Amino acid sequence: xxxxxxxxxxxxxxxxxxxxxxxxxxxxxxxxxxxxxxxxxxxxxxxxxxxxxxxxxxxxxxxxxxxxxxxxxxxxxxxxxxxxxxxxxxxxxxxxxxxxxxxxxxxxxxxxxxxxxxxxxxxxxxxxxxxxxxxxxxxxxxxxxxxxxxxxxxxxxxxxxxxxxxxxxxxxxxxxxxxxxxxxxxxxx
Length: 189
Hints:
By secondary structure, this protein is mainly alpha-helical. It is about 40% helix and about 5% strand.
């Protein structure tokens, strides 16, 4: 032996070698769970110009963005926004109970392929290997959704997708200290 641990061949019950994560959404569930899944879908929609973000964290559907093919996670965000008259805060989107069913479906696929342990939140050795492979493929922020999942949002994304201050009707006072905001102009109370 060369002093290295033997690497077992990972096989499906049917005999085939298991595959890694198929997309950024599986990677999000594998590494972070439902909130990471929701955040990934929101970023994807921002990048596709289907939604926009205000300074206060409220997301709005952009008119005419309803067409196209959406990943189920992206469609869920659009459905959640539609149910809230086209706008909602990020925290409300991420905490919506509707994520549980989608996250469970993705988790079950990861469990079936041997990447995630049944009943726990932790990845298997194959899941760890899939995460390492994704990290090797995206070692830095490269603008992909996988990069977002692994490294967090790039610092320039909010500046590119934010609405102009005059379009942010979340804070009618504009940060003037009229009691509706903290006074710094961020729009938070």
